[in-house]
Amino acid sequence: MAKVSIGLRGWRFEEDEIFTDDEELKPLDEIPEDPRERLLRLVGLVEEPCDVCYLDYGEDEIHRCNEAEIVYGEPDGEVLLCPEHERELLYWFREAGGSDHKGSVEFADRFHEWVAAGNEAPEGYGSVEHVEEDPDGLPDLPDQQEVQDRLEEGFDGDRIDILELAGEEDPEREELTEADLTESDLDLSTDYPSDR
Ligand SMILES: [Zn+2]
Relative to the CA of 56, which of 80, 129, 167, 180 has its CA 20 to 30 Å away? Predict the structure, then answer.
């Protein structure tokens, strides 16, 4: 099945897990837990600044930061990057120990520390191998209102367990959840740079 990025490049979703055959967003309770968590998180990440720009300029000069176009890592431990700074993440991940934190929510903190300590990719790093995907080719992220509507739909029908959305286990879903997790473990490389 086809994998798609939506809104930001990096995180990838199985198309048939999040969209109906008519390419509409599925009701949230029909979306498996891992992609649903990423989806809900993504809605809050669009239009956020690039982390490296932000570390360079800070809140006072936030207008100088590029808007992030790329996301790597785990929900709540994600790294946001502009195309210009993707090379810092690639270098850190491949050459400076970053891949040790793959799959961990510490991923972002460790990268931010590395950047804040003044590290950066050597000049020219990544410029040859860099393959730019067409950002205009990404489907748009459903907007905040649409996701909100989905949540409310769930309350009406009493189908969404809000605790589950907040990360609590629902015993009835346990089997499915474990299967999802196993699948996403095997599939982690799609959310991270390749190890080359
Ligand atoms: Zn940047």
Answer: 129
Q: How many CB atoms lie within 10 A of CB 186?
A: 9
| Interatomic CA distance for residues 85 and 100, integer angstroms | 20
Residue type, 44: G
Residue 82 Cα to ligand 1 middle (Å): 4
- How far, in Å, from the CA of 81 to the mean position of ligand 1? 6
- C-alpha span between 174 and 37 (Å, rounded): 16
**Domain boundary assignment for the chain:** 1-38, 47-127
Q: What is the pTM of this model?
A: 0.70
| Average pLDDT of the residues of the chain | 78
Q: Identify the pLDDT of residue 154.
A: 53
